[in-house]
Structure formats: C-alpha cells, structure tokens
Amino acid sequence: MIRVLLADDQPLIRSGFRALLEAEEDIEVVAEAANGIETLALVRQWLPDIALVDVQMPGMDGIEVTGRIAADPALAGVHVVILTNYGRDEYVFTALRAGAAGFLVKDIEPEDFLHSVRVAARGDALLAPSITRRLIDRYVTEPPRQDAEATLTWLTNREREAVVLVAKGLSNDEIAARMAISPVTAKTHVNRAMTKLHARDRAQLVIIAYETGLVTPRTA
C-alpha cells in the first residue's frame, strides 16, 4: 500500500487529488495539510511514502518543507513530489536541489497523476528528458563545481555511465539495454552511485550530474 500525504492550502485541490487516490486499491491518503508547518509535523507523524507538496504555501513554502524532510535521516523513506501550477515554475529546480523527487503540474491528466505517484513510490525521479533539459538550460548556467572531479572520483566508469543515462531520463531497464547489462546490474550501478554521491534519489543524481559537468545541456 502506497501511503500519501497531501499538502496544499486549497481545499478543493486536496479533495480532488484525494478522490483520485482513494479510488485506487493500492493507494491510501493518510493525512492532509493546509500549510508548510502542518505538513512537516504530519510527515513526521505519519511517515508517508509520498508527500505531495504545493510549492507555495503559507507558514513555510514547499521548498523549505522539502529541504527539512531531505535533511532529516528519520524521514529518508519519504519521497517529496512538488505540486505546481505551471510547468515552467521558477521554483521547480530549487525544489529538486532541496531534495524533491520530482514535480507535477496540477492540471495533469488523472491517469498520469496516478502513474506518477506509483513511479515516485518506487524511488524513480519524475523527470522526463525534455523537462530535465529545459530546467537545466534555464537554471544551470554556472560552470561545474570546483570539487567536481574529486566528487566523481568515487565512481567507477560503469557507475559514471549509469549516472549519465539517469540524467538523460532513462529508466533502469533502458539503462540496462544501453549498457548491455541486466536490469538488476543497472539498478546496482545506480544505487551505488547514489550512495557514493550521497544522493537522496534519482532526481538528486540528475542535479549532481549537471552540477559536476558530467552531463551538460549540450550533451543531454
């Protein structure tokens, strides 16, 4: 059962998402929050698998909530998905840097919304390649971090290759096909890279790949 927390200051938005989610046999809405402070308290209380968090809320915005969840080892199993009104929301990349697993536009089709919740629950990033490129093109303009090479030294060549493919939006099965290895081995490479780079999830791998220059907008 996928346990979901809904956080949005608009009751109509929350009720609409709740209706969709509770119609599914494998999803349960465990709590609702109307502001950031309440969201953080309820996440700590319920430890949901997924926290659907509006990017703009009173008290504490979704980015700060995301950062606090990501920084708390006790909440390592909580995947934050940012809810936004606009696909080009300027806060999206900041939220990903803070630790969000991805983002969803509120006018998403119901079937896509449900699929995305399940994807996030598996620990996969909600970042299509086209969205990744757009965000990187727009927000990552600075040169690679000065510690980039030292950071990447921890990775084997195969792990580097897997991170590059994650950054291009490929799933584990697609990575396996591209690298001519089994899906289990592909998942192992990705998980080891996440551990070595201290990445919370695949979305964080995407951020690290671009910040270190392992992948650039021109090669994505």
UniProtKB/TrEMBL annotation:
Gene3D superfamilies assigned: 3.40.50.2300
Organism for this UniProt entry: Hamadaea flava
Name of the protein this chain belongs to: Response regulator
Domain of life: Bacteria
Modification 4-aspartylphosphate occurs at: 54
HTH luxR-type domain segment(s): 148-213
Pfam families (UniProt xref): GerE, Response_reg
Keywords recorded for this protein, A-Z: DNA-binding, Phosphoprotein, Transcription, Transcription regulation
Xref: SMART domains: HTH_LUXR (SM00421), REC (SM00448)
